[in-house]
Amino acid sequence: MPQHNQRDQRPRQDNGGRQSTMDKIPSPYYFVPQQNFVFQPEWAKDVSQDIPFNDGLSGELEIEIEALRPIYVRNQAEKPEAPGKTDYLKQFHSSSRNQPTTEEQKLFDAWVSFCKSGDRYSIPATSVKGAIRNVLKIASMGSFREAAEDDRYSVRDLNLPAYQKRFVTGNKNAPIHFHSKSGWLRRENETWHLFECLHQRVEQSALAELTTGSRRPLRRQDFVDTKNQANSVQAKYQRWSNAGAPLDIKFTPGEVINQAARHTIRKLQLHYALATDIGKGAATGRLVFTGQPSHQKHMEFIFDLPPETGSSNPISFDDEDKII
Length: 324
Known about the structure:
alpha+beta, four-stranded antiparallel beta sheet, disordered N terminus
């Protein structure tokens, strides 16, 4: 596979300590490293795309196309251009005051004319073969990818009703309860372990106050700055690190209660546990930053500390398991 000329080649460290050039992916089609070695089985010389196997099938398909709607396939003539004239084609519009020359009009007419094969109007095979191929692949299960893969993808769409109903109950006229859970994911001895833990919410203003007196104190506004993606999760962790603040912080856990008094603008009856006494409480947890979809979001999370290696009662699974 050819490599992109503008691909970022700056090395970085991956999780295994090895250097990687995958710091940036300019295109989804260029992220697979090119290999100099191509494996060919001993029977490779006997295989050809032009000559099928003895027990294979080869043939032709004849189709008829009915134009249910107007069809326009432009000719393959080169687009008329003029050096230094960005609005060159506007002169060919019927409303233009500029009149093209006879030669210019001839080139333009050739460019916009319907595709022809000699004197007959025609539709190139490339215009229809892709559509036919896709239908045949679906009907005949002719692609190993569609037939063999059993991928499952995560979904996180805060505007999707089905997603909202799964994790949140209530509405603006009724108490709102959150049912999502938190946990730590760890890989031990080729096995993944998911350790469930409790979490608290914490005000961004309280976190900013904790950095007072540090080398780079934060303001609440630093958590919601929308310039240059400064509100991304990575940027939040970087700013917290620059302030010299620890991720493991002291706090006083709160109970899950109605926090309507903290949401008077939108008048929502949100129920959740709120951590207080940030930096002073008796409990210790780990700060977890999340994205900043809007200025209205004003909280982050504090998770229970990750369990020690070898702790009991995790949810365990390997790479082949399907986790929902």
